Amino acid sequence: MAAHDKVSTLDIEASGLGRHSYPIEVGYVRADGSAYCTLIRPATDWEHWDPSAEQLHGITRDTLVRHGRAAGVVARQLNDALAGSTVYCDAWAHDFPWLARLYDEAGLSPTFRLESAARLLDDAGLQALPHLQRQALTAMGLARHRASNDARALQQALWSLARGLPLHAGG
């Protein structure tokens, strides 16, 4: 990643953590700065709900049922917008299974690759990333734990690191 380049980033909010959790909101920011965020309506067999997760992201299950989009609609929109690109997240161990659950429900496969932001960073960058993300959220006046806000903060933090710290050449 060159210092003048921004990468595409993605974040997923979920019903909780663990095997039975599922995606409830997805947001991304592309390298060109365009952003997208949507709520995801739970599939009929997506029942897990963790009240402590709700306290973090502030999204109720009722809001998802009323305003969320079906998994197939969301998966197609992601595929259309992100086709052929590599998109980075900061919690790959959670985001990848949630993305897989979304696409399984939709009966589709992603047309883009989801990678951990850690693949771009050296040890110093990994240490600095959370602090820079918090700084970005504050500087942009964004609330934490909404998918597109977190994706934008990750993009800004990675860009800051690209301009100031040595990075690995691409993974």
How would you describe this structure to a colleague?
This protein is α/β, with parallel strands linked by helices and 171 residues long. The protein has a single domain, classed as Ribonuclease H-like superfamily/Ribonuclease H (Nucleotidyltransferase, domain 5). The chain is 45% helix and 16% strand. The chain contains six helices and five strands; from the N terminus they run E-E-E-H-H-H-E-H-E-H-H. The protein has helices at 51-57, 61-67, 71-82, 92-106, 123-140, 147-164; strands at 8-14, 23-29, 35-39, 86-89, 113-116. Strands 3-2-1-4-5 form a five-stranded mixed beta sheet. Helix 3 (71-82) packs across helix 4 (92-106).
Describe this protein with a few key phrases:
171 residues, alpha/beta, Nucleotidyltransferase, domain 5, 5-stranded mixed β-sheet, 5 strands, disordered C terminus
Please describe the topology of this protein.
Blueprint (H helix, E strand, L loop, with lengths): L7 E7 L8 E7 L5 E5 L11 H7 L3 H7 L3 H12 L3 E4 L2 H15 L6 E4 L6 H18 L6 H18 L7
Parallel strand pairs: 1-4, 4-5
Antiparallel strand pairs: 1-2, 2-3
Helix pairs in contact: 3-4, 5-6
TL;DR?
The protein is α/β, with parallel strands linked by helices. Helix content is 45%, strand content 16%. It has one domain: 2-Layer Sandwich (Nucleotidyltransferase, domain 5), CATH 3.30.420.10.
The assigned structural class equals alpha/beta
What is the count of helical runs? 6
* CATH top level label: Alpha Beta
Name the CATH homologous superfamily: Ribonuclease H-like superfamily/Ribonuclease H
How many domains, as an integer? 1
Could you tell me the mean pLDDT?
Answer: 91
Low-confidence stretches: 165-171
Tell me about the largest β-sheet: 5 strands, mixed
Give the distance, in angstroms, between the N- and C-terminal Cα atoms.
Answer: 10 Å
Biggest sheet, spatial arrangement of strands: 3-2-1-4-5
Task: Supply Rg.
Answer: 16 Å
Number of strands: 5
CATH architecture: 2-Layer Sandwich
Give me the strand/helix succession: EEEHHHEHEHH
CATH topology: Nucleotidyltransferase, domain 5
Name the beta content range.
15-25%
Overall helicity:
40-55%
Backbone shape? globular
